[in-house]
Write a structure and sequence with these properties.
By secondary structure, this protein is α+β, with helices and mostly antiparallel strands. 51% of the residues lie in helices and 19% in strands. The chain has twelve helices and twelve strands. The longest helix is centred in the middle third of the chain and has 41 residues, at 160-200.
Length: 397
Amino acid sequence: MSGAAALAVLIVLGPLLLAGGFLLGRRTARPVRTSDVGTPVEHATFETLHTASLASPPLRAGLTEESARKAAKRLRSLLGTDALCLTDRDRVLVWDGLGEHHGDHVMEQVEGVLGGGRGTAFAVRCDDLDCPLRWAVAAPLTVDHRVLGVLVACAPRESAVLARAAGEVARWVSVQLELAELDRSRTRLIEAEIRALRAQISPHFIFNSLAAIASFVRTDPARARELLLEFADFTRYSFRRHGDFTTLADELHSIDQYLALVRARFGERLSVTLQVAPEVLPVAMPFLCLQPLVENAVKHGLEGAVTTSRITISALDAGSEAEVVIEDDGVGMEPDRLRQILRGEGGASTGIGLLNVDERLRQVYGDAYGLVIETGVGAGMRITVRIPKYRAGVHGT
């Protein structure tokens, strides 16, 4: 079974295994009380799943002192044990319940678990006659075959049920930590893709923009100053350091600044029409997602053009979505060549913007939201972007 398949199985079966472990643990730790809602088994199953759902969000932030502190009480409730602690590879991150003074002893006992990745049980040494803890079980927390830490459950006496339940809970926690790692990997990938887009902002465009601004310094100083401010705002937005998402309004504003600089260079050769529905302006979307598409339209619209090139940009309300269409009447492209580019076969410097935007849209919204591109040689290009108005986790900044 592949790693991805195993992870999927754990995600599906984990809560059920936890429910079984919880029921067994509860029966040994305390009597089962009847409930007014369903049978005792149904009530205990619901309680288990609910507790697991409350423990999950903190763990999705990774194994840190804060996430451990927020999750520990829920995890101890799942096991029905007197004390529970979570460690990383160096120290106890949190101790929930009785016997916190056993922390140093526990770290000594789990060295083998950290080194070999196999769970263990051990007697708890304590000179305090009032301390009820006399036994503990330790289970590794692993991500991608790496032991990140240990879950330790403590009890007054040895319990095979608790040992099995602790192992299941540790595996469930490991799944949450692996999902956290996948989230971080996805974030790093998006950041890398944005850096790639920033690097694609052509040095020639920057040079030509500054040259165009310089040409107005003597003849039209006011125009030169206006363009310089547009250039400063455009670069500030493009190279900002915070947030994976923006609003359609901010993205269109940046595009307007970009086009102002392009028009300063090409003058009457470039004609741009914008049609924007005000109600879609607050829609959140991936940062730097439309500008590469407009840059592509400018490049292909003016490539080899002798007469005026026309670019049309529309952002319209389409019910639950905002629909953005960027169209040029330039040289177009062979459809087979376009398919190669979108498969990443266009070469190191060809079509980076189109491929990058297509991949990020699919990552954020799903495959149904990739770019829709219509083109042909000599027929220009029409790119359609559909953006859901509301999507969990997508917030403009």
